Amino acid sequence: MDQKLELLKAVPLFADLDVRSLTEVERLADEVDVRAGKVLMEQGRTGHEFFVIISGRVAIDQAGRRVTVLGPGDYLGEIALVDGGPRTATATAETDSRLLVLAHREFNTLMADFPAVRDCVLRSLAKRVRAVDPDAS
């Protein structure tokens, strides 16, 4: 298994995929390195990418307030891609980071072709909604 496939396999979102499926995800995703301070997405703007953090940390801010910091294995950007609405938060690389990036079309392919990944993303969405609105349960 090559290095990118090993990275993908280490991401919890993709951990249950077989080698053939991982190879397809590898084909869909671009691997990019970003410097600390790079804004990946801005709250209120249209979203076009989904990010999976391979290494580094990404700070998540809403209305100028730090909400959380994500690290290796975490992912972000799915909310705007699922519902077509604006970004719900601003994400900034807190450290130099390596990311997998899927554009909107590739994200939709991933969600359609890999039910296990789709289910994981949808569970994560539900968890995030509940965290923001405890009355949603």
Question: Quick gist of this model?
Answer:
With about 140 residues, the protein is of the alpha+beta class.
Ranges where pLDDT stays below 50 over 5 or more residues in a row are none
Question: What name is given to the CATH topology?
Answer: Jelly Rolls
Tell me the major beta sheet: 4 strands, antiparallel
What is the CATH architecture term? Sandwich
Order of helices and strands: HHEEEEEEHEEHH
CATH homologous superfamily heading: Jelly Rolls
Q: What is the overall pLDDT average?
A: 86
What is the percent of helical residues? 25-40%
Total number of β-strand segments? 8
Strand content: 25-35%
- How many domains? 1
**What is the spatial order of strands in the main beta sheet?**
1-8-3-6
Shape: globular
Number of helices: 5
What class would the helix/strand composition place it in? alpha+beta
What's the level 1 CATH class? Mainly Beta
Radius of gyration: 14 Å
Termini separation: 42 Å
Structural summary, described in words:
The protein is globular. The protein is built from five helices and eight strands. It has helices at 3-10, 19-28, 78-83, 104-113, 115-132; strands at 30-34, 39-41, 49-55, 58-62, 65-70, 75-76, 90-93, 97-103. The chain is 38% helix and 28% strand. The longest helix is centred in the last third of the chain and has 18 residues, at 115-132. The chain has one domain (30-130): Jelly Rolls, CATH 2.60.120.10. The strands form two sheets. Strands 1-8-3-6 form a four-stranded antiparallel beta sheet. A four-stranded antiparallel beta sheet has the order 2-7-4-5, with no helix packed on it. Helix 1 crosses helix 2 and helix 4 packs across helix 5. A hairpin with a 2-residue loop joins strand 4 (58-62) and strand 5. It is α+β, with helices and mostly antiparallel strands and 137 residues long.
